[in-house]
Write a structure and sequence with these properties.
The protein is of the alpha/beta class. It contains nine helices and 13 strands. It is globular and about 55 Å long.
Length: 282
């Protein structure tokens, strides 16, 4: 991990202009290592997040968005955003400081925060605000990312709803993560739908079975639906009030890779199509 981190830190030493400032998330595990590195290379830095120079003091989460509170130069601020996910709070505030430190007035920058929209594929809502249930698209394609995303959604789910997840794993990639992701999903989600992602030249059936092997015995509430479009459409058609569905793994990708073919495919477009069909039928 240190060699990987050092490679990323070299972006500062090799590219930051003289008198430039590095902005660092104060909540990352390697904060001490990073700040020591920057100090040893005489690089100024500014921390953002809980306990940072810009101190994230609190968030109030809901499926509709969040209220974010922070302090900067001994002044307290808060704002509302429709971007969900507690980790997005730090991302927004880091963006604030990047803009502010390039010369824009601080108050002008934070006045724009409620207007910012979610990045494509990062806890991106496919369902409309007035929908009785919620469909969210996210790029989570590793065990840690899937766990973090599911926990975020479980935290804001209404008690009467269920948390459902659709995901697969890419072929010809890290095989060890497949069972891990199955286990994580079974420990957090109420229902799991295992489907294909980008199988490439690998057997898609074999990939799905490796994921299923990781599903805990105490959670047999899963389905295996190979066709990703069918999996998305079928699950959306069976959502109930206050349910949250996470479609994970591909997010903003506009294709699916099967053998040597790159087939046009969008999780977001398929989800919106299914949601619109449900609305028409109802």
């Amino acid at each position: 991990m240190d060699s990987y981190l050092l490679t990323k830190l070299s972006l500062f030493t090799n590219n930051l202009l003289p008198l430039g400032i590095a902005i660092i998330n104060s909540e990352i595990k390697q904060l001490g290592f990073i700040t020591n590195y920057l100090q040893s290379h005489n690089i100024q830095f500014f921390t953002v997040g809980r306990g940072g120079d810009l101190d994230l003091t609190g968030t109030k989460q809901s499926i509709d968005g969040q209220n974010i509170s922070f302090t900067y130069k001994e002044q307290c601020y808060n704002f509302d955003t429709n971007i969900i996910g507690s980790f997005q709070a730090s991302n927004l505030l880091i963006a604030v400081m990047m803009v502010h430190l390039t010369g824009f007035p601080f108050l002008e920058v934070i006045s724009k925060l409620p207007k910012i929209k979610a990045v494509q594929g990062r806890l991106q809502r496919a369902s409309q605000d007035n929908s009785p249930y919620h469909v969210v698209i996210d790029y989570a394609h590793t065990p840690e990312a899937l766990k973090k995303t599911l926990l975020e959604l479980k935290h804001i789910k209404a008690a009467s709803g269920s948390l459902k997840v659709i995901f697969g794993c890419g072929g010809e990639r890290d095989t060890n993560k497949r069972a891990q992701m199955g286990q994580i999903a079974s420990q957090i989600a109420d229902q799991i739908i295992i489907t294909d992602e980008n199988p490439r030249h690998e057997s898609s059936s074999s990939i799905r079975q490796q994921i299923i092997q990781g599903i805990s015995n105490n959670n047999s509430n899963y389905e295996e639906i190979a066709d990703r479009e069918v999996a998305i459409t079928h699950t959306i058609n069976n959502l109930h009030s206050n349910d949250i569905l996470l479609i994970a793994g591909k997010a903003g990708e506009e294709y699916q890779i099967i053998k040597d073919r790159k087939i046009p495919f969008s999780d977001f477009d398929i989800a919106r199509k299914a949601l619109n069909a449900v609305k028409v039928d109802s």
